[in-house]
Amino acid sequence: MFGDPMRRLQVVILLALIAGFYFIPYTLLYKTRGLELFTYWTLLTLVTGLLSLIVLKNTSRGG
Amino acid sequence: MSVRIEFLLVFSIYIAIGSALATMSRRFFRGDIRDYYTGGGRLSALLAFGTYAATTYSAFMMVGLVGLTYATGVGALGFELAYLAFTIFFLSTIGYRIWALSRRHNWISPSQMLGEIYGSRLLESVVSSIYLFAMLPYLAAQIQGLKSIFTYGGLGELESVVISSIIAYVWIIIAGLWSVSITDTYQGFIMLFSGLAYLMWVLLALVPSTGNSLNNIISVISESGYLGLTKFWSLQVFLAYTIPWIFFAITNPQVVVRLYIPRDESSYKKSITYFFIYGLIYTLIVVVVGLVARGLAEVGFIPRNIPRDSVTPVLLSYMNPLLGSIIAVSIVAAAVSTANSIVLAVSGSLLAIIKGGKSEGLVLARVMDAIIVSLAAIIASANIGYIVDLSVLTSVILLPLAPVTIMGVYLNKKPGPIIRYSTILSIITGVGISTYYALVYGPRRAFLEQIMGLPLSLITLISSSIILLGGYVFEKLYSR
Q1: pLDDT tens figures, B24-57
Q2: B366 in reach of chain A (CB within 8 A)
Q3: Residue B30 domain flag
Q4: B220: domain range?
Q5: How far away is chain A from the Cα of B440, in angstroms, using its nearest Cα?
Q6: Which residue of A has its CA nearest to B246?
Q7: C-alpha–C-alpha distance, residues B187 and A20, integer Å
Q8: Interface check B242 vs A, CB under 8 A
Q9: Which residues contact A60 (CB under 8 A, 6 or more apart)?
């Protein structure tokens, strides 16, 4: 599993994206006062969760 | 306060159904130690998901997180959803790897897993000791958090501690992980549906009864700044809260051990998908309730300075007693389902050391479970700090296990002595740092304390990772 360097890179990029995007509010959404932050974090979780599930779906014990 | 009849009725039904399910689960139980701690790796997707969800989401959600959102605003959503996103990521990558390895090794405990991967009995013993040290306060917090809920039902502190400890213990000893997973799944659904009922009541009954519309409440929360990043959620505080939690899935034994239980690949993958859906819905429910509570405080319907852990009990007092009792019992369910999983995980790690992989020892396992529950009940009676901070500090203490687990699971061959000793040094250093600051500042302050401009959790993680990486590099150089 994850023996393929491209696949390993894919996983590391996904991890970096998740980490980076959760902190975006501290630069771009710092001043917002409406529902923007609520919506942003909810949609971000939905997208990153689905991406992780796609990685899981394409993972097998041999591959 | 007199005993609330509705609470007693709902609570009795909850216990009766749970006990019936636990008893029924005995038909699946084969009576050996591996089955007692991991269900023999034979659980369906539904049970694997149910026990994972109910174990992960404790009374912290309906009590602590509602209060945290009420007190600090939408930043609490970012913190909790970051936890969920990283958990799904880890479960989809390293978690799958752990599940696949567990099929070959038949582990009953994560400490045993680390000990075998690194070929070190000493490491196994160190990790087991840390579980005991870190998980007891977390377990006690589960029991302690129920006092205010039982008070709602008209029961006293002593009854609260005794009753919750007995339920947790009995549902373990009936059939080990089988009775725990079936009652967990049952409790997980109670938690979700009660959460939905709580939200519906807040939005459709409570808010209109105050003479406000939902739009009005949203405007008020927005104007008061609680829909943005409040002063509380500085970047350092966000990091302090988030870092221990994002590694929760690979550091906390009660959830790591749940990676061993799905019966096949399909069950594993389905259980993670179900957990993601559950986690997202449950988190949103809890945070919306907390935000609306803040709105109601801003319009003057409830006080503005309610202690965090009292927000839900205050809201319960406005509810119809039957609905309030259902919500209160769902909080008991959340705590019990987390508590018995912790007991089982800690006792499994201790038993793995004592019995060294032998399959007998059920009596000893049940005795150890009783000792752990009793110790937690005693600690709970001593009244220790906020639920939120206690839970999060436990995860800080367990953080050094994250790099050790990640490296160990991806190692291609048995490591040499330098890596083996560096894992132990890495864990002891990380645990030592967090414990030192907890002793010096007290758990709550230590958790948010900045050391060289960084939160304690980040310092702990970096220190452990550097030592581990150093050991890896040295061994590579030495083995050439």
Answers
A1: 999 999 989 999 999 999 999 999 999 999 999 9
A2: no
A3: yes
A4: 3-391
A5: 30
A6: A19
A7: 35
A8: yes
A9: A1, B265
Q: Which of helix, strand or coil describes residue B454? A: strand
Q: Which residue is it, tokens 């508590």?
A: B339
For residue B50, what is the domain's CATH number? 1.20.1730.10
Mind telling me how many Å the CA of B168 is from chain A's nearest CA? 32
For residue B199, which amino acid is it?
Answer: L
What does pTM read for this prediction? 0.94
Cβ-nearest to A18 among B89, B222, B228: B89
| Residue with token string 């939408």 | B74
Q: What amino acid is encoded at B206 in this protein? A: L
At B442 the three-state DSSP class reads: coil
Percent pLDDT > 70 in chain B is 96
Place of tokens 């479960």: B91
Domain contains B455: no
Contact (Cβ atoms closer than 8 angstroms) between residue B344 and residue B253: no
Q: Measured between alpha carbons, how far is B224 from B229 in angstroms, rounded to an integer?
A: 11
Residue pair B54/B207 in contact by the 8 Å Cβ criterion: no
Domain count, chain B: 1
**Is B16 buried (19+), middle (13-18) or exposed (0-12) by CB count in 10 A?**
exposed
Stated as kind and residue range, the H or E segment containing B27 is none
Tokens of B48: 């694997």
Nearest Cα residue to B427 out of B37, B134, B140, B141: B134
Instruction: Report phi then psi at B43, rounded to 5.
Output: -85, 145
Give the side-chain half-sphere CA count within 13 A for B4. 23
pLDDT in tens, B371-427: 999 988 888 777 655 444 555 578 899 999 999 999 999 887 889 999 999 999 999
Tell me the per-residue pLDDT of B238-262, one tens digit each, with 9 for 90 and over: 999 999 999 999 999 999 999 999 9
Please report whether residue B372 resides in a domain: yes
Residue B448 belongs to some domain of the structure: no
With beta carbons under 8 A apart, name residues in chain A contacting B410: 2
CB spacing of B84 vs A55 below 8 angstroms: no
The ipTM estimated for the assembled molecules is 0.91
Q: Residues of A with CB below 8 A from B280's CB?
A: 42, 45-46, 49
User: Comparing C-alpha atoms, which of B55, B80, B52 is closest to residue B274?
Assistant: B52
Residues of chain A contacting B96 with CB distance shorter than 8 Å: 1, 56, 59
